[in-house]
Amino acid sequence: MSSSVFVIGASGYIGLGVAQAFRRAGYRVYGLIRNEKYSNILLENEIEPIVAQTFDDLQSFADTLALCSIIVDTVGYNAKLSSSLLEVAIQTGKTRTEDGKLSHYAPLYIFTSGIMTYGDTSSTGRRPVDEMVKPRAANQGANNSSSANVSAMKDREDFENHILAVSSASLKTTVVRPGFVYGGQGGFVANLFYSEPLVIQGRRDMRWSWVHVDDLGEGYVAIARAPRVVVDKQLYNLAAPNDNPTYEELRTAMAKAQGRKETIEYKEADKDVPTRWNTDSIINPAKAINELGWHPRHVGFVEEIGIYYKAWAAHQSTQEIKSSEHA
Ligand SMILES: NC(=O)c1ccc[n+]([C@@H]2O[C@H](COP(=O)([O-])OP(=O)(O)OC[C@H]3O[C@@H](n4cnc5c(N)ncnc54)[C@H](OP(=O)(O)O)[C@@H]3O)[C@@H](O)[C@H]2O)c1
Question: How far is ligand 1, taken at its centre, from the CA of residue 283, in Å?
Answer without folding.
Answer: 21
